[in-house]
Amino acid sequence: MIIDTTEIQTINSFSRLESLKEVHGIIWILVPIFTLVLGITLGVLVIVWLEREISAGIQQRIGPEYAGPLGILQALADGTKLLFKENLLPSRGDTRLFSMGPSIAVISILLSYSVIPFSYALILADLSIGVFLWISISSLAPVGLLMSGYGSNNKYSFLGGLRAAAQSISYEIPLTLCVLSISLLSNSSSTVDIVEAQSKYGFWGWNVWRQPIGFIVFLISSLAECERLPFDLPEAEEELVAGYQTEYSGIKFGLFYVASYLNLLVSSLFVTVLYFGGWNLYIPYISVPELFDIKKKSTVFGTIIDIFITLAKTYLFLFISIATRWTLPRLRIDQLLNLGWKFLLPISLGNLLLTTSSQLLSL
């Protein structure tokens, strides 16, 4: 059988074209992921700088001012310092669990960003179970904290890991019930559908007006999930040295630090999406019609405006969380668990029953 050289060249060029298409497809998939990770990293650096500036203002002291103008490079300098610090391992601990704990805590929170819509056109995965995927993924973070506490072979670290698990369980249930109420109101568990359902009546269609009790419970539970003051019992310095972080140093300690701020950012984003209309900011009789006409005509400009609105709402709640941390005192562990099980759980259950009854009556 004789094959013409032109046919061989055609086959080779076709195979090269197919391989180039495959490479292009892989790059096209990875670009939005890397863009989102870069944006999240910059957002965390901004939060760290804001927390230092806001806490300095509340306590009437000078904030970061030497690393860069207004100290904006201080968080980057701290991260670089942790990256080059010596990474110590406990001699009698379980090194595999000790090393895997911080990674699980960070990865589980990073995966939650895949279902957050920054605009109608900017979301990695618009899933029909988006909000419940976030809850299920974020519930893996306490497993990493338990692994860290147990792998440290330190009773203070182990107690801190147990406290983190107990706190997470007690506040995840009210959080889930609040999310379920929102899903019933929106007739969907997709984050995009929830935002779209709130856009029907503009500003007055936001879920915060229909679910004020659920919003308060969700806000308190999300603060407890992030282990922020007044709920930072797992690493209470005067009781447990530094909790599950006691034996950590270098970049592994930095991963825990990053995980706490990643969790704070994702919680604020979900407050915005679930209760405050996401990227929608239409206020009847007050909005500027020309701006929204331009937004409808230009896809790029509209996406940028949507992202800006989402981030503005998110950073408003970040400011509330930071101000709360530097204002309220820490609770005791019994007070924290009593608040979760005896108050927030019954209130969230009652809110879910009221929401279900109103939805059934409206049918």
Automatic annotation (TrEMBL):
<keyword id="KW-0874">Quinone</keyword>
<keyword id="KW-0521">NADP</keyword>
<dbReference type="GO" id="GO:0009535">
    <property type="term" value="C:chloroplast thylakoid membrane"/>
</dbReference>
<feature type="transmembrane region" description="Helical">
    <location>
        <begin position="299"/>
        <end position="322"/>
    </location>
</feature>
<dbReference type="Pfam" id="PF00146">
    <property type="entry name" value="NADHdh"/>
</dbReference>
<feature type="transmembrane region" description="Helical">
    <location>
        <begin position="97"/>
        <end position="116"/>
    </location>
</feature>
<dbReference type="GO" id="GO:0048038">
    <property type="term" value="F:quinone binding"/>
</dbReference>
<feature type="transmembrane region" description="Helical">
    <location>
        <begin position="26"/>
        <end position="50"/>
    </location>
</feature>
<comment type="function">
    <text>NDH shuttles electrons from NAD(P)H:plastoquinone, via FMN and iron-sulfur (Fe-S) centers, to quinones in the photosynthetic chain and possibly in a chloroplast respiratory chain. The immediate electron acceptor for the enzyme in this species is believed to be plastoquinone. Couples the redox reaction to proton translocation, and thus conserves the redox energy in a proton gradient.</text>
</comment>
<keyword id="KW-1133">Transmembrane helix</keyword>
<dbReference type="GO" id="GO:0005886">
    <property type="term" value="C:plasma membrane"/>
</dbReference>
<keyword id="KW-0520">NAD</keyword>
<dbReference type="GO" id="GO:0003954">
    <property type="term" value="F:NADH dehydrogenase activity"/>
</dbReference>
<dbReference type="InterPro" id="IPR001694">
    <property type="entry name" value="NADH_UbQ_OxRdtase_su1/FPO"/>
</dbReference>
<keyword id="KW-1278">Translocase</keyword>
<keyword id="KW-0934">Plastid</keyword>
<dbReference type="GO" id="GO:0016655">
    <property type="term" value="F:oxidoreductase activity, acting on NAD(P)H, quinone or similar compound as acceptor"/>
</dbReference>
<dbReference type="GO" id="GO:0009060">
    <property type="term" value="P:aerobic respiration"/>
</dbReference>
<keyword id="KW-0150">Chloroplast</keyword>
<keyword id="KW-0812">Transmembrane</keyword>
<feature type="transmembrane region" description="Helical">
    <location>
        <begin position="122"/>
        <end position="147"/>
    </location>
</feature>
<keyword id="KW-0793">Thylakoid</keyword>
<keyword id="KW-0618">Plastoquinone</keyword>
<protein>
    <recommendedName>
        <fullName>NAD(P)H-quinone oxidoreductase subunit 1, chloroplastic</fullName>
        <ecNumber>7.1.1.-</ecNumber>
    </recommendedName>
</protein>
<dbReference type="InterPro" id="IPR018086">
    <property type="entry name" value="NADH_UbQ_OxRdtase_su1_CS"/>
</dbReference>
<comment type="similarity">
    <text>Belongs to the complex I subunit 1 family.</text>
</comment>
<feature type="transmembrane region" description="Helical">
    <location>
        <begin position="255"/>
        <end position="279"/>
    </location>
</feature>
<dbReference type="GO" id="GO:0019684">
    <property type="term" value="P:photosynthesis, light reaction"/>
</dbReference>
<comment type="subunit">
    <text>NDH is composed of at least 16 different subunits, 5 of which are encoded in the nucleus.</text>
</comment>
<keyword id="KW-0472">Membrane</keyword>
